[in-house]
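PROTOCOL LOG
Step 1. Enter all chains and additional molecules of the complex.
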Amino acid sequence: MTEAAPITQIMRALADPTRRTVFERVVGAEEISVAELTRGSGVTQGAISQHLKSLKQAGLVAERAEGRNVFYRAEPEGLAPLVDWMGHYGVFWRERFADLRNLLKEIDP
Amino acid sequence: MTEAAPITQIMRALADPTRRTVFERVVGAEEISVAELTRGSGVTQGAISQHLKSLKQAGLVAERAEGRNVFYRAEPEGLAPLVDWMGHYGVFWRERFADLRNLLKEIDP
DNA sequence: CTAATGCATTAGTGTAGACTAATGAATTGC
DNA sequence: GCAATTCATTAGTCTACACTAATGCATTAG
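Step 2. Run joint prediction.
Step 3. Record the structure below.
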């Protein structure tokens, strides 16, 4: 199991819009290459690699090299510290209680 | 109801350790003054006011002036966009869904 | 009234980081 | 072998921002 990244690192990684979009695209795809992520991103390939490095250090993505491609995939446990952090403020969940119940039903009917 | 702040603003507000600590202290107290927040924060009163301004703009706290004091309190709905954002990645919740069930039980046994 | 307290705001400073351009290393195609 | 592709990394630039110090405005105390 990968070491859990500190909450600050995770928050910081997701705070930048460009980087968060990269993360969302990685989530949306089963696996996705850097070249594909660069396409239509509006930034250079180097910038994408830098964002992926941050996301990786935050424990949010993992990589798999194959030939000259490097495929990235989402790392589910990476968001755990964020969930835990929000869990500390249970009072907040009350507000979104119904939505959460629905979500859990979808996950495990 | 307050306008929901964009997810980026919320993430950015919570990404800074000092500011997140301020938020956590506001959550921990029913109401808390700026002077009290400044105490033991390690930064000046002006910095605290600036952080509170960011948190307020992110919809995470609200204020109440009384005399020469200004008391801050947490704003529950402020975290909703964050919850919603995580909700979009339902797959992630599967990993933590046992913990979530326990959390929901605590909230509404 | 005067002094002290609580807070917000401003200008200025230092640092972090988002980005580009360039380079190099590894792999694949011809 | 040679050119092209994919990616990571580096140096350099520019902007954002966390912070301090200082100031000013209300409000309360004496």
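Step 4. Note key features.
Residues 33-35, 38, 45-46, 48-50, 52-53, 65, 67-70 of chain B lie near DNA strand C (CB under 10 Å from a C1').
The interface with chain A takes residues 7-8, 11-12, 14-15, 17, 20, 27, 74, 76-77, 79-80, 82-84, 86-87, 89-97, 99-101, 103-104, 106-108 of chain B (CB under 8 Å).
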